[in-house]
Amino acid sequence: MARAFTPKVLTANRLIEGDVVYYGNNGDWVLSHDDALFLDDETQANELLTKAHKQADLLVGAYLADAILKGGKPVPTHFREEFRTRGPSNYEHGKQAEV
To answer: The sheet that has 29-30: what strands, in order across it?
Structure first.
């Protein structure tokens, strides 16, 4: 029996900058997990993932990551995804410098 679908966000890395990006509520790629589109429909999630894989000139490594809604915003459910929301880990720049 197949596992039940759990809600997701669509994430990837921008090819040029290497930034972690999320497919946003506005239909564009955004830098903040808070602005990611919360995907609770498996068909829609898979369609968007297929669309992301076709954007090889912009993105690399697109995948669906588990999330829950908390306070109306998607929140990662796995440590790896929480870690990715903070940006590069080698020194403070990008998202880490903004905190």
So the answer is: 29-30, 20-23, 8-14, 59-70, 73-76
